[in-house]
Write a structure and sequence with these properties.
Distance between the termini: 47 Å
Strand content: 15-25%
Oligomer: single chain
Shape: elongated
Order of helices and strands: HEHEEEEHEHHHEEEHE
Radius of gyration: 25 Å
Strand order of the largest sheet: 2-3-4-1-5-6
Helix content: 25-40%
Length: 262
């Protein structure tokens, strides 16, 4: 879609630009645009990336590694900021560098990205949802793509942690830092010096709907010397209330706990 937007303007003799988080991430769009504009290209160079059309239009390619100086002095009729949520200093890039390039031609900008937390990309998405003048936003989960097999999406849902699936596949804004247990804390190891009681934690989600969360159980025990907590076992199920209770009971029979926290 982004390539089409820029190609149409470039073929109409207008200057356009493509911005990416890094230099490597602009290489594929450059090849795509060069392919789409075959037969209409006057010049094409990779460093710095620029394609000029015989109609007088152009597509400039920038990386946003140093957003404070990029594209200064240029003017564009439309720009694309690709993978915008991955740009570390997106707000600075937009306000100080990219936005001024649109003033002369009253140009427009497209911010395209998978969400990545509650950053500036989330702020501008909210502007569109709130109907702020000059802004519009859309949310397109992977399931809306007719070229991707729904079974593949379902397989990914089963294999991917809930927050990651919500972000990468459902295009939802989630706060990865809000989890009580962070992935980088987890390590594999053989337990030693384990004493004391077993505790079982239960996270209830009583539903049989395929899109529902799971009822999950985890059994843990603490290393008396290092203080490390070992996960003895974990399991989950999508079930109604009665079946969930039986699942919890069976889990506790396998890992007899002193306490169960729900």
């Amino acid at each position: 879609m982004a390539a089409g937007i820029l190609a149409i303007r470039a073929l109409a003799g207008k200057p356009t630009a493509w911005f990416a988080p890094t230099y490597r991430m602009q290489e594929e769009p450059f090849r795509l645009m060069r392919k789409w504009l075959t037969g209409h290209i006057k010049t094409a160079r990779t460093a710095p990336g620029r394609i000029e059309t015989v109609q007088g239009g152009s597509v400039d390619f920038y990386s946003l590694d140093n957003p404070g100086i990029v594209a200064r002095g240029n003017k564009y009729s439309v720009v694309v900021i690709d993978e915008a949520a991955m740009v570390t200093r997106l707000e600075e890039a937009w306000q100080q560098s990219i936005r001024p390039t649109l003033a002369d031609m009253r140009g427009s900008a497209w911010f395209l990205s998978t969400p990545k937390g509650y950053n500036f990309f989330k702020q501008i998405y909210t502007k569109g949802q709130d109907g702020e003048e000059g802004w519009a936003s859309w949310q397109m989960p992977t399931v809306s793509n007719p070229f991707i097999d729904p079974e593949e999406i379902e397989a990914a849902r089963k294999d991917t942690p809930r927050l990651e699936f919500s972000q990468e596949w459902l295009a939802e804004f989630v706060d990865m830092s809000g989890g009580r247990v962070r992935r980088e804390w987890l390590r594999y190891g053989e337990p030693t010096n384990i004493f004391g009681p077993v505790a079982v934690g239960v996270d209830l989600a009583v539903s049989t709907r395929t899109e529902a969360d799971y009822t999950a159980c985890v059994a843990v025990q603490r290393d008396a010397i290092t203080g490390n907590v070992y996960i003895l076992g974990a399991d989950r199920i999508q079930a109604g209330f009665g079946e969930a209770l039986q699942f919890i009971n069976n889990f506790c029979n396998y890992y007899p706990p002193q306490s169960v926290a729900v």
